Amino acid sequence: MSQQIAFALNRIVNPYLDLEEFFELSSGAGLARVELRNDLSSGLITDNYTPAQVKELSAKYGMEILSINALQKFNVGDLLKDKKQELEKLLQISKAIGCQAVILCPNTDSTDTRTDKEKFTDTVTALKEFAPLFEENDITGLIEPLGFKISSLRSPVTAMKAIKEAGEENYRIVHDTFHHFIGPDTIESLSREYDFSFTALVHISGVEQERSTSDYTDNDRVLVSSEDKTNTTEQIELLKNSGYEGAFSFEPFSEKIQHLHPDQLINAIRKSIDYICKKTGFTQVF
User: Fold this and answer.
1) pLDDT tier for residue 33 given thresholds of 50, 70 and 90
2) Whole-number Cα distances in Å, 73 to 27, 82, 121, 162, 179
3) What single-letter DSSP state applies at residue 148?
């Protein structure tokens, strides 16, 4: 087990910054890995920058683009044709800018009447349909289980089983510490039932309010601190002790974080990194 830990930054940390400003923020926080998104208010993944300009900015600030987040509702059978077309566009952009992966998020709709078996079958079908596209573009599909009660894919264990059932090798899993905490798994059950070699990215955030897990929302998600109620550092230790060597990417959705001045945000990120390293005993690698 390596005693070093790599951090990254998801663009949701401040969705109001221009792409270059986001890269500058990440660099200022001592980070060299980032995640982009397709759900910002502009609707644009790279703002108005061309792929060549994005590569220039990545080189200028020393940034590695880990993923684009995300293809939503990827596992709804009735939407499969549309989702395949949407994925093709995401993969084209990813390949053009040197991005390594596209994240796949499951349906989270309270009106979803499918049985658990039907949800699983639709997930496997989607993975089989998408696989040639990922293979052609040499990009990884990252499945992100979401722990919300209304989610159609809540557990990394289920995601792992779906990948195995699909028989495709170009998929891995995102472990989100918030969604693990509100989801069906415990640290103990995950240790018994999950193969951690399937994990290729980790999203981290903290929650400081004490309430029922069913009441937590994305807006509760802040940076990780000593006030965290979601056992984030314990999850980090579990992942590292189980052989995970990838990045831990900050993904705080809270408006309280998003509206910080960039200088304040940089200091807050550094403080969170210092806390995590002190708590776990790991040393940040750049």
Assistant:
1) very high
2) 32, 11, 14, 16, 16
3) S
Q: What is the CATH number of the domain that holds 115?
A: 3.20.20.150
CA distance 247 to 33: 8
Counted domains in the chain: 1
Measured between alpha carbons, how far is residue 81 from residues 77, 120, 153, 163, 232 in Å? 8, 18, 20, 20, 37
Q: Which ranges of 98-174 does DSSP label H, i.e. alpha helix?
A: 116-137, 156-166
> In the structure encoding, which two tokens stand for residue 88, read together?
């093709």
Contact at 8 Å (CB) between 160 and 195? Answer: yes
Q: What percent of the chain is modeled with pLDDT above 90?
A: 98
DSSP three-state, residue 243:
coil
Query: pLDDT (tens digit, 9 = 90+) per residue, 220-257?
Result: 999 999 999 999 999 999 999 999 999 999 999 999 99
Strand partners, 35: 10, 67
- Amino acid letter at 222? V
Segment 2-14 mean pLDDT: 96
Rounded percentage of the chain residues whose pLDDT exceeds 70: 100
Strand runs labelled E in 79-223: 101-104, 140-143, 171-176, 199-204
Residue 155 exposed, middle or buried by CB count within 10 Å (0-12, 13-18, 19+): buried
Q: What are phi and psi of 246, to 5 degrees?
A: -85, -170
Q: Is cis: bond before 70, omega within 30 of 0?
A: yes
Q: Is the pLDDT of residue 2 over 90?
A: no
71 is in which domain, residue-wise? 4-285
pLDDT tens track for 81-128: 999 999 999 999 999 999 999 999 999 999 999 999 999 999 999 999
